[in-house]
Amino acid sequence: MQELFIKICGITNLEDAKFAVKCGAHALGFNFYEKSPRFIKPEEAADIIQRLPEHVSKIGVFVKADQRYIHDVISAAKLSAVQLHGTEGPDDLIDYEVSAIKVFRVMNDFDVEVMRNYVVDAFLLDTHHDTLYGGTGQTFNWNIAVKAKDYGRIILSGGLTPDNVEAAVRFVHPYGVDVCSGTEKHPGKKDHTKIVDFIARAKSVQLSYNEDAQEDNE
Question: pTM for the full model?
């Protein structure tokens, strides 16, 4: 049995970060995309991150960012991983000193074959939106996520809430789940009751994984 990986994204303050960790989140996401309502400055993220337990993964979210900028933020904020929303090809993801998560924004005609040549720690599948990169509050066709598991670990995102996360996990059997707007009072501020409910319901689903098969696909 492998425990479901749970990431709470859109963290902007220490109170929410510590609460999510206390509730059992494995990872926290910090958004460094300046156009996002959940944007946090690298120095502010660094101040939060240094107060968090070592075992919690601190993931930087970047949208079409310059690689030099990403490396600078990794160093300044002491990130554990980067989550990349952009046009990165397979060769653009091999030079990071931390774990790399490649994001694909999914529409109904999304072809999972595009994932074949990427060597990353995980893929994050989110709902496509013309102007938003994450935090859409909208789900996508989970059948696509099931097919995508042939190419590596899948972190399911896009419109997840305490009300639908159990159904999502049972349907997809993902490596992990990622939530942002589904646990908020408003962009950048978490609703602690929703965090409790989301994590409890996500963890309530008992899953088993064939790790050997998964490694063969990576």
Answer: 0.90
